[in-house]
Amino acid sequence: MARQGTAADGTTTAERIYCAIKRDLFDGVFEPGARLGNKALQERYGCGVSPLREALSRLSGQSLIEAEGHRGFRVRRPTRAELADIYSLRVLLEGEAISRAVARRGPDWCEEVALRLAGLIANQPPEADVTDHAYRLHADAWEECHRAFHMAIYRGAGSPSLLTSIEAVYDQSERFRHARWRATSYSAVSQSARQEHEILVEVCRDGAPETAREVLADHLMGTAKVVDAWLARQDGA
């Protein structure tokens, strides 16, 4: 029997609440700058004060939300400076990983990357309004496959420390997910990404480390430019 506050799979209530709030933050359920009131959050997630406080403290530590003294927490507003900083780090870290992975590539790695790409394509979101619940679930599935695809590439570098660093910065970039699909339709995002991912797989197979690094940099900075333009429009609104 699971302990009180722990699900049968070992997940604690605080962990469940943390994951739920984090997903909602990435999906844009809470507007940037919105206050996160304890009472409203307890009702939304069906939890008590202690696990909620633990989840919020963890999210604050990851800079996803910010504390307001003794008044609770507020959703952080993404800034263009943060976007530039995060994506420059992604280009640096992920570029090193793909370069190493391509240099030491083997048939098993190439096969895994190809399988992850197939999963990503299979979860291509249909055209729909981004507020539609079913569409959001589909988009969430695509995001999971997207992450799995990229991490499969970077694992090929054979560096657990590098992979850990990449995952941490990747998580920070997820704060801009909502901005990305407000800037353009999710279907358009995933359609464009599909072409770029297919090219990535090709250069991985070709075995040219520096070419792979350059293609990946273009892929990442293309996303950053779209989001930056959207944030600039919001700043001028």
Layout of SSEs?
Elements: H1 13-26, E1 35-36, H2 38-45, H3 49-61, E2 65-67, E3 73-75, H4 80-103, H5 107-122, H6 133-155, H7 160-173, H8 177-183, H9 186-206, H10 209-236
Antiparallel strand pairs: 1-3, 2-3
Helix pairs in contact: 1-3, 4-7, 4-10, 5-6, 5-9, 8-10, 9-10
Description:
With 237 residues, the protein is mainly alpha-helical. The protein folds into two domains: 13-75, Arc Repressor Mutant, subunit A; 80-236, Four Helix Bundle (Hemerythrin (Met), subunit A) (Up-down Bundle), CATH 1.20.120.530. The chain contains ten helices and three strands, in the order αβααββααααααα. A three-stranded antiparallel sheet has the order 1-3-2. The mean pLDDT is 86. It holds the Pfam family GntR. Residues 11-78 form the HTH gntR-type domain. It comes from Acuticoccus mangrovi.
The portion of residues assigned to helices is over 70%
Terminal Cα separation, in Å?
Answer: 54 Å
Largest sheet: 3 strands, antiparallel
Q: Write the element-wise H/E pattern from the N-terminal end onward.
A: HEHHEEHHHHHHH
Number of distinct helices: 10
Please indicate the count of domains.
Answer: 2
Inertia-based shape: globular
At the fourth level of CATH, the homologous superfamily of the largest domain is GntR ligand-binding domain-like
Organism: Acuticoccus mangrovi
Domain HTH gntR-type: 11-78
Keywords: DNA-binding, Transcription, Transcription regulation
Pfam family, one: FCD
